[in-house]
Amino acid sequence: MEFAKRIDFLQANVFADMDKAKAKARGAGKDIIDLSLGSSDLPTAPHVIEAITHSLHDPSTHGYLLFNGTQKFRQAAANWYEQKFGIAVDPETEVLPLIGSQEGTAHLPLAILNPGDYALLLDPGYPSHAGGVYLASGQIYPMPIRAENGSLPVFTEIPATVLAQSKMMVLSYPHNPTSAIAPLSFFQSAVAFCQQHNLVLVHDFPYADMVFDEQVAPSVLQADPDKSVSIEFFTLSKSYNMGGFRVGYAIGNSQLIKALRQVKAAVDFNQYQGILNGAIAALTGSQAGVKAANQTFRQRRDAFVVALNQIGWQVPTPAATMYIWAKLPAFWSSKSIDFCTHLVETTGVAASPGFGFGKFGEGYVRFALVHEPAILKLAANKIAEVLTPTISSRY
Known about the structure:
The chain is of the alpha/beta class. The protein has helices at residues 14-27, 46-56, 71-85, 101-112, 127-135, 160-163, 184-197, 220-223, 236-239, 254-265, 273-284, 288-310, 336-347, 373-383; strands at residues 33-34, 95-98, 118-123, 139-144, 166-171, 200-204, 230-235, 248-252, 323-327, 349-350, 352-353, 364-368. It has 2 domains: 5-43 and 289-387, Alpha-Beta Complex (Aspartate Aminotransferase, domain 1), CATH 3.90.1150; 46-284, 3-Layer(aba) Sandwich (Aspartate Aminotransferase, domain 2), CATH 3.40.640.
């Protein structure tokens, strides 16, 4: 049986390798502390659950949901953006509901790229951004992000030959996995660059609310209020602990929204109306749960950073997201996947290898703060078991 060449790029997956390593560790009797997946362990707010529950008993919500049936949700999303960022949004032409923002970032390249066109992606970056480009038969130019540049790409490093074939740039700040925040001035530079080179500017924005210590995460639309080249993706997975409900939306340039809607129409309708009713309740109801979750993750961040520093692994304190991006100990000379495999098999602590986020993620691991502080401290104590130079000689 012969398959399309576009899926050749999807064969390798270090996260699948980590799943095997976790299963092997469980089989060997290890208790797993899984810090490898960024799935919030916090509960969805009661008023959101109540809205979904009420919908379940309403037969009018049980059928297919087409675009016109999402009007109340689109209005709620537009209002939320205007209140949070001061950006006026037309819910009819500038908002599109999505089954999680990953649907949008994966499908948008199908609307923008012709085979062979380039997309400019952050490296390291979220893996699904690359997957969408490959499915569109596009090419990827990785924009390295380095700590010395504040984990921001340097646009002048992009070769002119690549720019001539490029159609889109994908950014995502606060950033997964490095946890970096981009200032508004950076987005203004990115908008000007994309306008100059006729690029679509895509901003994946799942951590809009997960920012600590009085820091601010700007929307790309604040740098492009006319929505000349920009589209932004937001998900309720992080801010509202609704990952399993798969609800997000795109906001931005009306032509881009229309094109993405055309792709979406060929793939699906929308999620269940009851889920969107819950999302409306989340966006329009009390935001106390968002603030409480933010405080919870800040406390976890502080606890885990202190615990890692105490065992001799010096890591920076992130300003945002639910992750710790940690440079591998100096003695460890092998790959990040080897370290993470050894770590889980030896201690039961699972982390994500940096290489899984791109070539320039090698040499790092990502820890997700998805357990309470006591468990994170226990994980750090277990990690201490492998922080000895003698183990690197095995690899």
